[in-house]
Write a structure and sequence with these properties.
This protein is of the alpha+beta class and 277 residues long. It has helices at 2-17, 65-68, 123-126, 141-152, 173-184, 196-199, 261-265; strands spanning 22-31, 36-41, 58-63, 76-81, 107-112, 158-160, 166-168, 201-202, 204-205, 208-209, 219-227, 230-240, 243-246, 253-256, 267-272. The protein has two domains: 2-112, no CATH class; 123-272, endopeptidase domain like (from Nostoc punctiforme) (endopeptidase fold (from Nostoc punctiforme), Alpha-Beta Complex), CATH 3.90.1720.10. The strands form four sheets. Strands 8-15-11-12-13-14 form a six-stranded antiparallel beta sheet. The chain has a five-stranded mixed barrel with strand order 1-2-3-5-4. β13 and β14 form a beta hairpin. α4 packs across α5.
Length: 277
């Protein structure tokens, strides 16, 4: 009888090991086009008589909008595992799920562990001998229209671009700023975020980009960050009073400059569009 109970315990334990509910993982790469992440579970697996080994990387994990901007390559994340297949459900569609349950491919990132908010390091500003103290002077007519358009997009996942129609905010920071300027009357700037320091009138000071006395409506340019082996710049539009409007996360954001994507990347400076403000 005892032998039968032990065998039953072993059977139940084996089944429970394959019933995934939540796990901690390390983000290996961010997929900017789809807004998903590839995650390496941090718990090892071990078969009897063999060495422990890493679990397979889980590709294409979705993320809650509330924490999307805090997740990047290298982040330690908490993932929950949905009860059934979410292939259709994650796109907002009702569907009969495929067979199987509590599979790690059906995970959702719900938070980050340690390190705080990666966009909240305002010390990056002082490293450039710069101080953000709010807008200087009165906002010009073009700047006002550009900022008003940008503010109207806050909270949206995409925006109506003057080029190629509707755009998802993720990976379209330069197009977002260019469209704001086009709506303000300064003209569409074009190019990507890496082009902005060269195509706009970036202000320099003592051989460095100057982040002080930023006029409302200016574009704030940052060094960028590596994603999936590629290097991306970043650009946002300054809304005044220490806030920026930017695309590049789950939604268009209005956020303190010290908590912006640019603060994480490292500021290069600010510039004025070719059509002026």
């Amino acid at each position: 009888m005892a032998t039968d109970l032990n065998a039953l315990d072993d059977f139940v334990e084996e089944k429970l090991l394959h019933l995934h509910t939540a796990f901690l993982g390390k983000v290996i790469s961010a997929n900017t086009n789809s807004g998903t992440f590839d995650v390496q579970p941090l718990t090892l697996t071990k078969q009897y008589g063999k060495d422990a080994k890493k679990q397979a990387i889980i590709s294409g994990i979705i993320c809650l909008d509330d924490v999307y901007d805090k997740v990047s390559s290298g982040s330690t994340v908490l993932c929950i595992v949905c009860e059934r297949d979410i292939t259709e459900a994650k796109n907002g569609n009702s569907a009969l799920p495929a067979s199987g349950h509590h599979l790690m491919k059906d995970s959702v990132i719900i938070g980050t562990i340690g390190g705080g908010d990666p966009f909240g390091d305002s010390t990056l500003i002082s490293e450039n001998n710069a101080e953000i103290s709010g807008s200087s002077g009165t906002m010009g007519a073009k700047a006002k229209k550009a900022v008003e358009w940008a503010m109207a997009q806050v909270g949206k996942r995409g925006f109506n671009s003057t080029r190629n129609g509707y755009c998802i905010s993720t990976n379209w920071c330069a197009r977002f700023v260019s469209t704001a300027y086009a709506n303000g009357g300064s003209g569409y700037q074009g190019g990507n975020a890496i082009d902005f320091p060269h195509s706009n009138k970036i202000v320099k000071k003592n051989g460095k980009f100057d982040c002080s006395n930023i006029p409302a409506g200016a574009c704030i340019v940052s060094k960028g960050y590596p994603v999936g082996g590629k290097y991306y710049g970043h650009v946002a539009i300054y809304a005044g009073k220490g806030y920026v409007v930017e695309a590049g996360g789950a939604v268009i954001r209005y956020t303190p400059i010290g908590q912006s994507i640019g603060a994480r990347c490292g500021f290069l400076g600010w510039g004025v569009p070719s059509g002026g403000l």
